[in-house]
Predict the structure of peptidylprolyl isomerase.
Amino acid sequence: MPTFLQTSIFLGIIGIAAVLAVKNKEKFITTESGIKYKNIVTGKGAKAKLGDTVSMNYTLWLDNLNGKEQIDSSYDRKAPLQFVIGKGLVIAGWDEILQVDMTVGTKREVIIPPKLGYGENGIVNAEGVVFIPGNATLYFVMELVSIDEKP
């Protein structure tokens, strides 16, 4: 027969697992434009805003979050992408979602509709090979690594 301590530890572990399961089942929030997102980790750093130079890590899938059709990942290259928010240097969905309460250290699952991604045309490389098909929904895990705020 288990001791009181063993039973308490077992129930504690089950409770932690239940909390984590609920946390992972949190619903996506949908912006007015149709982007869906939920935080995996909420950072405690500065909040990103228009005009900031940011460094982002990301992974992109075309089939679903953590799917089999991984297209690109800055994690694989070990080099975050750096750009200025709002200058049109990245897809419109990124410019928007970074300004939705994203702080340094935040890691987020994001689903971007085609109109805020690569649209009807998608991306075709110089050899004519389709990299991202037209009207593709984009599935990202994004992490805001740092902000170099505008002066």
